[in-house]
Amino acid sequence: MRTAQVRTAHLRREDLARCAELERVLFAGEDPWSEAAFASELDWGHYYLGAYAADRLVGYAGLAVVGPPGDVEASVHTLGVDPDWQRRGIGRLLLRELLAEADRVGATVFLEVRTDNEPAIALYAAHGFTRVGLRKRYYQPSGADAYTMMRPAPVEETT
């Protein structure tokens, strides 16, 4: 899928160093993921996408799906966009593609988001997420709180 000059594709192993670099910028006050953490996510078979502008990674997102058919649950593990590329719809594009994958398998989707990250909270709410919990001191080392948000699985229509 594309938005303006950006296309999405499955995240490539050769982009994991760039993911870790972006993590250090985006989550400097926290415990940013390492290249090895991203590699582990891919090794587990989780669904990861990259957003590319002229073959340069400018965003990434990941979704874990667990459970047997009929009782599937998904979790957005991460979503990040290069600060120079923010406010161009890339985060929305990545989120929509993660949600399409969750819908494909009929999964309810959960995520955590900092309670002070109003743009992300608004993005998630616009895509059907509601707050269902509060995790005190979730982010470390800052001790920032997180909301747990949930989007229900799609309802199958019966005739």
What does this entry look like structurally?
With 159 residues, the protein is of the alpha+beta class. The chain has one domain: Gcn5-related N-acetyltransferase (GNAT) (Aminopeptidase). The chain is 28% helix and 33% strand. The chain has four helices and eight strands, in the order ββααβββαβαββ. The chain has helices at 16-26, 35-43, 90-104, 118-126, and strands spanning 2-3, 6-10, 47-53, 56-66, 73-81, 108-114, 130-135, 146-151. It has an eight-stranded mixed β-sheet, with helices on both faces. Helix 1 (16-26) crosses helix 2 (35-43). It starts with a strand and ends in an 8-residue tail after the last strand. The model has no long low-confidence stretch (mean pLDDT 93). It comes from Actinokineospora fastidiosa. This is Ribosomal-protein-alanine acetyltransferase. One of its GO terms (molecular function) is N-acetyltransferase activity. InterPro entries: AcTrfase_RimI/Ard1, Acyl_CoA_acyltransferase, GNAT_dom, YpeA/RimI_acetyltransf. Residues 6-154 form the N-acetyltransferase domain.
